[in-house]
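sry for the spam today, last one i promise. struct tokens for design, 234 residues
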């Protein structure tokens, strides 16, 4: 049996040894502009869904990493006791536990095996994944994770999806997840999607010329490689 969680851990360890993490430092101009663009799109989406009290929303994040997205949600007004993070890698889980409030639930392990005491079926208004599925190379495991996420949603809730859609020929440890694949993973979802994020290799080049060029190039939709999607349940 293919052990995809173990394979994911090995891929991340290999990338860490290669020093890839520096590419994602928020001190880099292309990174902070990507983060700001995604945050604006998220806020527009929350407003469009009619959410007025973010502190009342229950949200679980698959692959919460060191807690960056959950910290961002706290700043936006989500309540710590209504946030849950699930993380496969022990070192990232430990970092998240260090920076997040004690009231925020964190679980270490394969999200598909998370017990109901951590995330109960039908308990969440939102389930977030950010560049997790592009790191999963096993189709069957992708589907198991999608099914688990869908089961956690309450009727009227939504999976909040952010991931890239095209392959990176320089990185065999990831693969793009086209919108057609997203629809296949969540066949019952009503999908609203928008393209965001200037292609990172291009963003790194243009920001070396001048950070302001990020917005110029990102104004061309065909140069955006990621999708921010709301996958509605019911």
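last one done:
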């Amino acid at each position: 049996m293919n052990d995809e969680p173990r394979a994911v851990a090995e891929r991340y360890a290999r990338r860490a040894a290669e020093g890839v993490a520096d590419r994602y430092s928020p001190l880099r101009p292309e990174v902070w502009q990507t983060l700001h663009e995604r945050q604006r799109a998220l806020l527009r989406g929350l407003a469009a869904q009619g959410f007025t009290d973010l502190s009342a929303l229950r949200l679980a994040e698959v692959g919460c990493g060191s807690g960056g997205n959950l910290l961002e949600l706290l700043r936006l007004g989500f309540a710590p006791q209504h946030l849950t993070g699930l993380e496969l890698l022990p070192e990232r889980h430990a970092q998240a536990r260090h920076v997040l409030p004690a009231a925020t639930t964190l679980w270490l392990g394969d999200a598909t095996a998370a017990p109901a005491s951590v995330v109960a079926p039908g308990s969440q208004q939102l389930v977030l994944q950010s560049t997790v599925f592009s790191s999963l190379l096993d189709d069957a495991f992708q589907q198991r994770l999608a099914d688990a996420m869908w089961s956690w949603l309450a009727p009227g809730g939504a999976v909040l999806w952010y991931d890239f859609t095209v392959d990176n020929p320089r990185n065999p440890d990831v693969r793009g997840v086209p919108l057609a694949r997203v629809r296949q993973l969540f066949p019952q979802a009503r999908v609203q999607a928008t393209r965001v994020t200037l292609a990172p290799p291009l963003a790194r080049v243009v920001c070396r010329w001048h950070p302001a060029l990020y917005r110029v190039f990102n104004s061309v939709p065909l140069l955006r490689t990621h999708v921010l999607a709301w996958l509605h349940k019911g």
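The chain has one domain: 4-111+120-232. ok im logging off now
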